[in-house]
Predict the 3D structure of the following.
Amino acid sequence: MKIQSLETFCVQIPLKPERRMISALGRHDSSTFLLVRLTTDEGFFGVGEATVTPRWSGETAFTAAAIIDRLFAPSLLGMDCSDPQQIDTLMEQLTVGNWFARAAVEMACWDAAGKAAGKPVYELLGGAVRPLQIRNRFSLGAYEPAVAESRAAQLYSVGFRTIKVKTGGDPRTDLERVIAVRRAIGNDCELTIDANGGWTFEQAEAFLQSATDLNISLVEQPLVRGDYTGTRKLKDRFGIRILADESCFDEIQLRELLIHRCCDAVTLYPGKQGGLLRAKRLAMLAAAENIPCTIGSNLEWDPGAAAMLHFVVSSENVRIEQIPGDCLGPSYHEFSIVRQPLRIEGPFTMLTDRPGLGIDVDWDLVRQHQVH
């Protein structure tokens, strides 16, 4: 089943006002992502999504489109899209990094291969190891304390039992926000924080010294990506559990995390890791060292969120039962570009057993919201 064409679409969708994100990386009011449509010589279509945010991944929808249109497509045309490993190997030879662009192409290959086989992608990845319905945490932006408290209370009322609070700014303001959220959700709800690498060592130290009675179960990416030594010092000094995210894009970085023993869990995404195959390999590598993994979010649309769900459902060491992740991205946006959106009800997201990713993109709607 050969790749006949690869098309790219840069699309923009606003976030719902109440779910616009604020973090150490800045504001996120609308998403400009890239959709990829793959066509095979047998008439099957595959869709991929590059959930790019330049301040986080270093890629934009436009750079990802250029890489795919000008570099990947000319080399991939005629290749067998039912062999994602071969596709990944060639892309690795063509460029360094560009993880989300590569993931979008690989995702489209899996989607087309699943449709051709009449199987959901998770079956192609080895089969489901957990139910197709997963429970999520909720990632709460770095809002003013009163706003954060109100929204946390509402989230608790609809069934969320893990709330992640964005930090990574001024430690005193961060502390006020986290205290407000703990007050809203009580002591029977799990509380985690995510600094997105925004703190210096001294700022992280100041926050953690004042937060010892807040029962924070995980501290995600407290320091800049790659600061393995500083993160280990924080972990040892305060006895905290560290969740690594921005510090782990590839296998070398994961091995460094493991060698330095500076994390208790790792966040993996098919996008960040450059595809489903690579994400699964990293999950297995972490498992060999008894480090559990979870799933993060870049506020994906339905295609990207579906790929994440297929990864979660088929990967034993993505232990969302112990460390809930976040596959809620479509619900943050004002509308969906697919005809049958993923079912998201309160903290639960449901994956279907339809072939491929199980997503039917409305390409007319995509064109209406295309940006150039």
